[in-house]
Amino acid sequence: MRSARCGRGLALEGTEAEKKAISLLSKLRNELQTDKPLLPLHDDWVDTDIWNQYLEDQHNLLNENDKKISWFQSSWLYVECYLYRRIHEALVLSSPISDFDVFKDSKDQNFLESRGAIEALCFYLQESKRTIEVVDENIQKDEFCKLLQIMLWGNKCDLAVVPGQSIPQTSSPLTILEGLKPFILVNNMDALWSLLLNKRKKSQENFSVIRVDFILDNAGFELVTDLVMADFLIASNLATEIHFHGKCIPWFVSDTNIKDVNWLITQLKAAESTYLSTCGLIWEDYLKKKTWVYHDHMFWTLPFEYCAMPHVAPDLYADLQKSNLILFKGDLNYRKLLGDRKWGLTIPFHEALNGFHPAPLCSIRTVKTQVQAGLAPGQGEQVADSNPEWMTSGNYGILQFDGGP
Ligand SMILES: O=P(O)(O)OC[C@@]1(O)O[C@H](CO)[C@@H](O)[C@@H]1O
Ligand SMILES: [Mn+2]
């Protein structure tokens, strides 16, 4: 009897929490639609003070007439990040559903709808791992480059542009790579290969660690492409440890957090296909043994451009300095790498990074926003001639490398 009452009490508490979250979210929508001033946060999350200080700084910086910073009058990058942080606030303030991820269903859906392509990819990975020790360097390079391109085109699958509309990867991703090559505007795959190959040669002499970091983007199909590459790097000794960096709160609809990683591994392990279940088991083991390490520093869900990292998150910057290669996935990471500024298209990538050089790094991103540097003279004009929407279509990609400090 007592436990039945207790259960009813919990259900009631849950319903009240849902009502509260929904009302906070509709208030948020109204503020946005009517261009109200941005408000300080009222929750007590680890980053609340930083966000509120940021708002105050924006106010002091941009507002000589003491007007409030509002939704339509502030920088797009800041306001967009603020939107996702406010969605998080609405949940945090609605205990006991504070941990609820409002985007989880769409992320899971993307994985489920891409199952065929994921199976093809896991099959390919296992076949290439079987022959890794006998094949020569050129074949290994070829496989490495294929997996890089799959990671690149996997970035088309984000859900932030058209929320709720999953773009599943249905056909085998490997068959379409050749045809997509002309759409890679900056292609520094050779530089990545040379860097890792040199590291491997040194490591074979002196047993040094080779650390590769993945700054993750979207869950679902894209995450699988990243994990497949991470597995290949370990199996081929091109890396000895992998560090993944995900988001600690639901972010830009489809971005990866730890629950997405765990869910994915559970799904793979339970799959009927042995290609999938083998990947699930191996990846779980890598995580257990710390060959793969997952991090979720709060800096990744703050509005700062990355050149601010040494001041805002010196611990994270110092950690990234230990890496031999950092792979930044996706469009939002690129916007933050370049401070979301309208750089001239031919300004060198190194310069546009504005002093952010923790280690050699590479952006792997389909171009979805009007931020781009490091193109060859005349290249931007030529692409614009054939496709005026080239910067927002997501049809073009870059694998853009910077050698570091
Ligand atoms: O970083 P991702 O997942 O590649 O892309 C995220 C994105 O679609 O969301 C924003 C639009 O709302 C843009 O920054 C970007 O185009
Ligand atoms: Mn994303």
Write out key terms for the chains shown.
single chain; binds 1-O-phosphono-beta-D-fructofuranose; 2 domains; alpha/beta; 7-stranded mixed sheet
Topology readout:
Layout: H1 2-33, H2 48-62, H3 76-92, H4 104-113, H5 115-130, H6 137-154, H7 177-180, E1 184-187, H8 189-206, E2 211-215, H9 221-235, E3 241-245, H10 258-270, H11 274-288, E4 292-295, H12 309-312, H13 314-320, E5 325-329, H14 331-337, H15 349-352, E6 361-366, H16 379-386, E7 397-402
Helix pairs in contact: 1-3, 5-9, 6-9, 10-11
Organism: Monodelphis domestica
Protein name: Sugar phosphate phosphatase
Keywords: Hydrolase, Manganese, Metal-binding, Methyltransferase, Nickel, S-adenosyl-L-methionine, Transferase
Describe this structure in words.
By secondary structure, the chain is α/β, with parallel strands linked by helices. It has 2 domains: 93 residues, no CATH class; 300 residues, no CATH class. Helix content is 50%, strand content 9%. The structure holds 1-O-phosphono-beta-D-fructofuranose (F1X) and manganese (II) ion (MN). The site of manganese (II) ion has 9 residues, from loops. Manganese (II) ion binds next to loops.
